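Input.
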Amino acid sequence: VVVLSLLMYPVLRSLALQLHSAITGSYISGSHSIAFINCLNEQIAKDIARAIMDKKLAACVNILPKSSALYFWKGELEESTEILLLVQTRTSKIGELSNYVRSIHPFEIPEIISLPIDQGNPLYLKWIEESVPRD
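Output.
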């Protein structure tokens, strides 16, 4: 019984939080995330952003202008110019988003990093919720 209770705790906690959120209208911290994806140039960034939106993996993708990057690649210090995508989505979609972007991205190892959204404008967070279908 103790082992079963420990194993069921995450599921029960998640259900309780969802029920609380539905009743009170409050936001469940971490339900949504922002993913960061780097791209070689603006055309690749637009193509990837459109592909993400076509698959309904995000509510919004911001394309940020060029930035300089310094990084180690295969033991050498490299410098490049990159375009950054900011992808607003459900946290539950991050795995699918990452797999999809890796399948279409020209980089051998694309940067795909996500951070959960702790708090924000409740109406905006609700809009993300409505814009990205559940699993």
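The longest helix spans residues 2-24.
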